[in-house]
Write a structure and sequence with these properties.
α2 crosses α6. The termini are far apart. The protein has a two-stranded antiparallel ribbon with strand order 1-2. The protein is mainly alpha-helical. The protein folds into two domains: 31 residues; 124 residues. It is built from six helices and four strands; from the N terminus they run αααββαββαα.
């Protein structure tokens, strides 16, 4: 029986290629795991980036389109509510401010039709997005799409992003998310 230890790899193109692949994989995963390196492929470094992509484009970081009642594709909340979430007008219809700080403000708000509503919380924001219901139980305007294609994680990521709008130092509108 021969007990000699053979070299695991002789200098060759195959060995150099294998070593190069291992080094690149190690460097890439170290940056992703620490949150400091670039994402490889379309996946986000953070949940915040996924929320931002949904808000801006209606598409998850993995490239899945969020389905909605109007059949729109490739558009997100920003199409009507603006990239800063502070609202405006779309096709002559008012689009309200949807920054989380505005929605959750404890004072009672009145919508453009004169209806009053209590402040939103995370769960009532989710109900507004998915079912078109405000915290007072009122149905939102039919122009507001009902976004039905969310996973629970995607919806949480979107809510997390809404909380950053208006606060550039945290990567919200005006901040850098590396998108």
């Amino acid at each position: 029986m021969d007990l000699r230890v053979s070299s695991p790899c002789r200098p060759s193109v195959q060995c150099a290629l294998g070593l190069g692949i291992l080094c690149l994989a190690g460097l890439g995963s170290a940056g992703i795991a620490s949150g400091t390196g670039p994402a490889i492929g379309p996946w986000p470094v953070s949940h915040l980036q996924n929320g931002a992509r949904i808000f801006l484009y209606g598409v998850t970081a993995q490239g899945r389109t969020i389905q909605n009642s109007h059949g729109m594709e490739g558009v997100g909340c920003a199409m009507c509510h603006g990239t800063d979430g502070r609202g405006g007008s779309m096709h002559g219809m008012p689009a309200p401010n949807i920054t989380f700080s505005f929605l959750s403000d404890p004072k009672e708000h009145q919508d453009p039709r004169g209806r009053k509503r209590p402040p939103y919380n995370e769960e009532t924001v989710k109900a507004a997005i998915v079912a078109g219901i405000d915290p007072g139980g009122n149905t939102l305007d039919p122009e507001m799409p009902r976004w039905t294609g969310f996973t629970a994680k995607d919806l949480e990521d979107l809510i997390g992003y809404l909380k950053t709008l208006g606060r550039p130092s945290e990567g919200g509108a005006g901040g850098s998310l590396g998108l």
